[in-house]
């Protein structure tokens, strides 16, 4: 199978209840990962364009749910289910959803 153009690493990390950093799993990251995978497949993008993968902590807890897009090397942050059609369209057109891209300040907060 050929290598895909992009890999979307969705943080599905889970921490114990009450942890100071929180965790993406408590913000529905697993449902987001599954829905993203389904939407990419429905658009015919899953075989060559993008693969959705579960990831452990990506060190962007303050901006979760986060998705690392590789090899473009940027993060989407505070992603919700409602954002997924826009993310899928961006993958289809080779664009980014700029309103979701984490800034240098966001990344510094971790």
What does this structure look like?
The model has no long low-confidence stretch (mean pLDDT 91). The chain has 3 helices and 4 strands. The protein has one domain: Glutaredoxin (3-Layer(aba) Sandwich). With 110 residues, it is α+β, with helices and mostly antiparallel strands. It has a 4-stranded mixed β-sheet, with helices on one face. A hairpin with a 3-residue loop joins β3 and β4. The termini are far apart. The protein is globular, with a radius of gyration of 13 Å.
Please provide a brief summary of the model.
The protein has helices at residues 29-42, 84-93, 104-109; strands spanning 6-11, 50-55, 67-70, 74-76. The protein is α+β, with helices and mostly antiparallel strands.
Keywords:
110 residues, alpha+beta, four-stranded mixed β-sheet
Query: CATH top level?
Result: Alpha Beta
Instruction: Report the principal-axis shape.
Output: globular
Output the helix-strand order.
Answer: EHEEEHH
Q: What's the mean pLDDT score?
A: 91
How would you classify the helix and strand content by structural class?
Answer: alpha+beta
Fourth-tier CATH superfamily name: Glutaredoxin
Tell me about the largest β-sheet.
Answer: 4 strands, mixed
User: Could you say what the CATH topology is called?
Assistant: Glutaredoxin
Helix content: 25-40%
Uncertain regions: pLDDT < 50 for 5+ in a row?
none
What's the gyration radius in Å?
13 Å
What CATH architecture label applies?
A: 3-Layer(aba) Sandwich
Number of H- or I-type helical stretches: 3
The fraction of residues assigned to DSSP E strands is: 15-25%
What gap, in angstroms, lies between the N and C termini? 35 Å
Give the tally of β-strands: 4
